[in-house]
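User: Here's a chain of 345 residues. Predict its fold as tokens.
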Amino acid sequence: MYLRNVWYVAAASPEVTRNLRRIRVLSEDIVVYRTTGGAPTALEDACPHRKLPLSMGRLKGDNVECGYHGMTFNCSGACVWVPGQGRVPPNAKVKSYPVEERYGLVWIWMGEASLANPDDIFPVEHYDDPAWGKSGGDPIDIACSYLLITDNLLDPSHVAWVHRTSFAAKGTEDTPVEVKAEDKGVIVSRWMFDAEVAPLYRPLVPFKGSCDRLQHYEVRFPSHAIILAYFTPAGKGGHGKPVPEDAFFMYSYNFMTPVDENNTRYFYFQIRNVHPDSAEISSQMASGVRAAFMEDKAVLEACQRGLANPRVRPIDLAIDAGPLRFRRLLDKLMEREAGTSVAAE
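Assistant: Prediction complete.
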């Protein structure tokens, strides 16, 4: 069901504090907190004695004390104290998950801990570049499979109907897309020429009149996406053409973390090449993008409910080429990972 030997986003950085917090990732319950030095920590959220969630306990320095009988665990998941006996049983331990903090997010490795390499965390270009502005928002909980969201993010056509007041504009209804599969994921893209600037971007695009617009939707395994919005004055866009000085770029980074098979947490932020210091513009973009994502949420949750009806089998259309390619490749990666795991056992 899930690819495990990859990095997922566990939480937004402000969500991980000196208070024990219960989260759920890939159908596993996890307790997260910060050490006294500020480092994020993630442990299996179940005391091995009677399985009380450790998140119902308390912190003692950097250790977690179970709220039932006081068994205490360190950051690596080892039990360091058992009340009423001098010897700690060898099986008195909980799973510890590798975690890293980057881009205002806490990342977690759900697979074989020895394979966790922080260099494999999704790279975000321009994140710390003062010439680029940032906007974002709180995570969104969506009651649907993460694969419905990756489908959505590999489908530029839906903006014409779902996002009429934000991302939609001339050409978004029927301009064909190019689909390209790569080792890291799938890219769906299209140029729309001599079009109007979409409503969400009008306050940001630094030129007047019609535009040439590139929609670049890229989803990388297991469920991380880059959405590039690129606008040039009409007649200056297209494959291989130089980038004009007044071109507009906005990269939207989207990280979908499966909570379980029917629920997903959606983490996101945007980076733009204009107005880097404008808090007002950042606020406007954050509000506009979140409103659009809430439109997606309503549609995707309704689709999840509809797909649960076994009487009606869904059909596929030409616009589903990108999503279907992504799912097939992800299935192969999961099969390969599962085969490797079985062989190792």
